UniProtKB/TrEMBL annotation:
<feature type="transmembrane region" description="Helical">
    <location>
        <begin position="77"/>
        <end position="100"/>
    </location>
</feature>
<keyword id="KW-1133">Transmembrane helix</keyword>
<feature type="transmembrane region" description="Helical">
    <location>
        <begin position="41"/>
        <end position="71"/>
    </location>
</feature>
<protein>
    <submittedName>
        <fullName>Energy-coupling factor transporter transmembrane protein EcfT</fullName>
    </submittedName>
</protein>
<dbReference type="InterPro" id="IPR003339">
    <property type="entry name" value="ABC/ECF_trnsptr_transmembrane"/>
</dbReference>
<feature type="transmembrane region" description="Helical">
    <location>
        <begin position="247"/>
        <end position="268"/>
    </location>
</feature>
<dbReference type="GO" id="GO:0005886">
    <property type="term" value="C:plasma membrane"/>
</dbReference>
<feature type="transmembrane region" description="Helical">
    <location>
        <begin position="107"/>
        <end position="129"/>
    </location>
</feature>
<dbReference type="Pfam" id="PF02361">
    <property type="entry name" value="CbiQ"/>
</dbReference>
<keyword id="KW-0472">Membrane</keyword>
<keyword id="KW-0812">Transmembrane</keyword>
Length: 278
């Protein structure tokens, strides 16, 4: 059991989880949809929570976000970070209410903000975990976004595995060349400080290696006519020919719209506003 826990919490596992997240290898409902429709779905859940203060509506939207995360098959690393942040936010709410002169209305007001941010965060996870670099870049290009923006998104995603690999290599080199503390100290704080120093020092060689990789990649893309292909309409048509709205996209957006309308109907029947408790 201990061996399995060490394997799961290793740097290699974290690196693989980041790569799976960046390249949408887990599949899921939104991975099978048109990327433009996925962005539209995300904007619905990202914008609508800001137009209401009804806790009933926000609670329903929060549940919708949780279901979307399950359907998108979000990885355990991203999900664990979200749950940890949500728990810490809940602790902050009660601490703020108890020690800073707040009351029940303060807790409910902060709970409203937590529900909004939680809904938007889960919608972001579900949408962008399901889009690989090519799909996201092509969706932005199809929506008439600047070609350089679409290229930057695609290139940024592709640089993520390289950065993680470079950091892992440089960090291991520092571990081999640096002697660990003779005594770990109370709760091993000397070891923690030693690892933090190595992590900070590892970023400087990464910057140099990344700059070299960026120059090589840009020169290779320009040699192949990447800039002209994104500006010329014929090249855009060939690149975006596979994008097509299907019945699944229409069903998901229509069902989401109905659920949002249902959330507002439920909120109108059983309204809970934080101003009611003041």
């Amino acid at each position: 059991m201990t061996r399995k826990q060490r394997d799961v919490l290793s740097v290699e596992w974290v690196k693989l989880e980041l790569i799976r997240t960046a390249y949408a290898t887990r599949g899921g409902l939104f991975a099978a949809m048109d990327p433009r429709m996925v962005l539209g779905w995300y904007l619905m859940l990202a914008i609508i929570p800001w137009f209401t203060h009804n806790l009933t509506v926000l609670a329903v939207l929060f549940v919708m976000g949780a279901v979307a995360v399950a359907l998108a098959r979000v990885g355990p690393l991203i999900l664990a970070l979200f749950v940890f942040g949500l728990i810490m936010e809940s602790v902050y709410i009660f601490v703020a209410a108890i020690f800073f002169g707040g009351d029940v209305s303060t807790v409910v007001a902060l709970l409203e903000l937590t529900l909004k941010l939680g809904t938007i965060s889960m919608a972001s996870m579900a949408a962008f975990v399901s889009l690989d670099p090519e799909k996201l870049s092509d969706a932005l290009l199809s929506l008439r976004a600047p070609a350089l923006l679409a290229f930057a998104v695609s290139y940024g995603y592709r640089m993520l595995p390289i950065l993680v690999e470079e950091f892992n290599t440089v960090f291991d080199n520092y571990r081999l060349r640096s002697a660990p503390p003779e005594k770990p100290g109370i709760l091993g704080y000397r070891t923690v400080v030693h690892w933090i120093k190595m992590a900070v020092l590892s970023f400087y060689p990464i910057f140099l290696n990344t700059a070299q990789s960026v120059r090589t990649t840009v020169e290779a893309l320009e040699t192949r006519g990447f800039t002209y292909a994104t500006v010329d309409q014929r090249g855009r048509n060939i690149r975006l020919a596979y994008l097509k709205v299907r019945w699944l996209d229409v069903v998901v957006l229509a069902l989401t719209s109905l659920l949002i309308a249902g959330a507002f109907w439920v909120g109108a029947q059983w309204p809970i506003y934080h101003t009611d408790l003041t």
